Amino acid sequence: MGRFGAVPAAIRAAPAPAKVAGLLLALEALTLLALGVLQVLRGFGSGIDDVPRTEMGGLLALLGGAGVAVLAVGVLRRAAAFRSPTLVVQLLCLPVGWGLVQAGNYAYGVPLLVVPLVIVVALLAAGVFGPSEPDA
User: Fold this and answer.
1) In angstroms, what is the C-alpha Rg of the chain?
2) Residue 130 half-sphere exposure, CB side, CA atoms within 13 Å?
3) CA distance 36 to 131
4) Burial label, 57 (beta-carbon count in 10 A; 0-12, 13-18, 19+)
5) Euclidean distance between CA atoms 22 and 76, whole angstroms
6) How much is the pLDDT for 133?
7) Global pTM value
8) What is the pLDDT of residue 117?
9) For residue 32, what pLDDT is reported?
10) Cα(6)–Cα(8) distance, rounded to whole angstroms?
């Protein structure tokens, strides 16, 4: 099973705020993966003007979803190497969410503002960004 065999134990050992952050990161990852699959499948349909662009967008969403899934596991394991990437990804969501809210797309923009803020607050409450032991 490799490294992912330790994930259930890490989930049990993680403090509640880290579990919340890990769960929200996992939901972000699943959302990105689903959107990537839909985008790739959409590229096979008719009426697409730029198929390579559609396929590349789907591929990037799949890669992003896999990356966020790795971050979710790292947060649950409380590994120090996952602090900065997790924070950067969440901070990058904020201007996108704000732009969507300003454009009137509240259904997309509000979650892109609220979820990253909740993740950052949960990580701070869990002490994930504080001093820690080096990664194993």
Assistant:
1) 17
2) 8
3) 36
4) middle
5) 6
6) 52
7) 0.81
8) 95
9) 93
10) 6
Q: What is the mean pLDDT of each run of 10 residues along the chain (136 residues)?
A: 63 81 93 93 83 90 95 86 89 94 94 94 76 52
Give the dihedral sign, CA 121/127/133/135. Answer: negative
Instruction: List the one residue out of 58, 116, 51, 48 whose CA is nearest residue 87.
Output: 116
Q: Determine the length of the chain.
A: 136
Give the closest residue to 88 by CA, choosing from 40, 129, 45, 136. 129
Say which amino acid occupies 68: V
pLDDT of residue 85: 92
- Give the pair of three-digit tokens for residue 128: 């994930």
- Pull the structure tokens for residue 95: 């201007």
For residue 92, the model assigns a pLDDT of 93
Going by the DSSP 8-state scheme, the letter that residue 77 receives in this structure is T
Q: How far apart are alpha carbons 39 and 50 in whole angstroms?
A: 12
d(CA 29, CA 68): 5
Q: Quick check: 80 and 69 in contact, CB under 8 A?
A: no
How many other C-beta atoms can be found within 10 angstroms of the C-beta atom of residue 89?
Answer: 17
